[in-house]
Sequence to fold (729 residues):
Amino acid sequence: MPLDERPESVAEQTETPAAAQLPGTATSDTAGAANGAASGNGTAAANGTATGEAAASGGTVPAAGAGRWWLDKRAQLAFASFLMLFVELALIRWTAANNVYVTNATNFVLLASFLGIGIGFLNAKSSRDFVRWAPLALVLLVAFVLAFPVILATLSGPDPYRGLFGTKALPRPVSLAVVFVLSTAVMAGFGQAVARLFVAFEPLRAYRLDVFGSIAGIAVFTLLSFLELPPVAWGVIAAAGLVLVMGRSARWWQYAAAVVVVAMLAIESAAPHQQWSPYYKISAQLSGKAHPALYVSANNIPYQAARSLTVLHQQKKFYFFPYQHVTRSSLKNVLIVGAGTGNDVAVALSEGAQHVDAVEIDPVLLKIGRSEHPNHPYDSPRVTTHSADGRAFLQNSKQHYNLILFALPDSLTAVNGQSNLRLESYLLTLQSVKAARAHLAPGGTMAMYNYYSNHLFNRYATTMQQAFNRAPCAQVGAPLGGRRLAVLTDKPSGPVPNCTTVWHGTQVAPATDDHPFPYLLNNTIPTAYVWMLALILAASLLFVRIAGGSLRRMSGYIDLAFMGAAFLLLETKNIVQFALLFGSTWLVNALVTAAVLVAVYLAVETARHVKLPPPVYLYGALIATLLLTWLIPQEDLVGLPIVARFLAGGALAFAPVFIANLIFAQRFSDVETTTTAFAANLLGAMVGGALEYLALITGYRFLLILVGVLYALALVFRLLQGRSAVRPA
Fold:
């Protein structure tokens, strides 16, 4: 993706933390982890005793499905579950598109949603009515995000962020705190709507309906992403769905709130020069008189600019540097990864490329380039466009190229943070550069270029050196925003022709497939992350204490806390693994999340129809599958044909998920107070979300060890609790 106007790592400039995403949502996103633990693992917790707990609480409990006149109870539960997951996915993506702070911490809204759903389930039989206030909470959240956006307005200076009309952005703690609280409040209403319906069913039957609804939520949101629909479409579904869930009990002000939400999102969606791709909110506008260019921003971040060849020759000469080391006659087949709006493709054609494979992950950028680039390079019969993840394209292609360009590849979803998984993170690892080398034709050349900090420049130069067994040719250009343009060129067959400067800088360990954080200076968790996680966990503990009563009541469910933490980490590992095997695309993330729910459903059906063995045997099977996954490195799967890769990757990823849900279903048949048990599981899952950041130090493979340890501890505490239960008085 061409990135003319800014360095590849504004994240380093702004020093803002980010969780290890699954993109945006996710993006590529990670909402499935929250739903698996909240509406999945929480299903039985919200159920167990349908009427006994209500009586014990002394509260006035709304009848299950009260006021819902339009469907029978089974359909109501499935619809409420669909709506809850759909809104969760929409909030995760939409808040990040408007607030750079939120995108810097990509699981921030995920954890808020997770907490809110948990609170809703804890109050399944409480007289406190979160559903009633959900429309108002949604209005406040949408209004706040739109009134106080966070925009990256400059690439340098102590205060690069701005709000509306160039005003100073709110302080980061204030902005994040308001978004977190309001997101939690919104999801508490949707969570309670689901929980109230759960109590009308036998637990596993309710769980099945919840899974069906959740899969439908993923499918609908995926469809809207595919259709590139703006937020007003998401708002219509969320607002109308909430009114339907409330049924005849809805009041005029709740209808008014739903209308206001849709109206605000409609105004945003109608903004000129703006489109919504499956990944970003993209703004594109022509600017400049003497040297006009189409300036593109993504999620409030300066992103790239489409310029004519004449302007590129005058202002951006580095586009032509790689062609100084090849001959026109040799350019039979060229691969450009990160083709964006077309600058690199236009240059390749002008330099004599006979055929160009242009790979760009975002289809909207290709559309903009096709219609708006001054030279219309995508109209050339010599160009084939591919809307795909660059690493996945390399893995699935058998083609060889005379020149491969990693052309300013940086997703810049909104300054995702120096420690975050970006869309291009697996493209910039040592294994990926080696894969690119394997696709070079005899005598072929590879080049990568961007605006680098000194540390990042040395890291990528070291990566090229290790992949090609010789130091790359280094051409350094003009600075921009505290970074300096650099082009790194190498080839496996010998020295780079016409090279005047060979890199001799400081060796910096390359990013790897296990630790794909090229922008992370050291293998550590930044202090800002630690503070953010500590505050989130403290807030979660407080809210659960208020909603669930004394924390001592959870002492009998310590094993469930460990299970919650382990399951969240297990889902994270699965999504990351599939991003490597099949690409960091929105479709891959959606399919993995749906596959997790299918595995949960299969476990529920098994638990309903098969007598399960004692817990020790199930835990033994779980540890065995985790050990097998550990013994087979991901890189061994990457080289397999796509069908074999899918079967092997799916088996290794979802066998532990299936067995873990068998264990969970069996455990909840023994609990005495399901709401307290769920509170313990919820707190454990929140801790699991924090433990996920250990991957910044250890890499993702280590998470399997951590998952195994957590499940082992869960077994130990379950056995101890069992002995205590049979001890004579």
The first helix runs from residue 10 to 14. The chain has 26 helices and 14 strands.
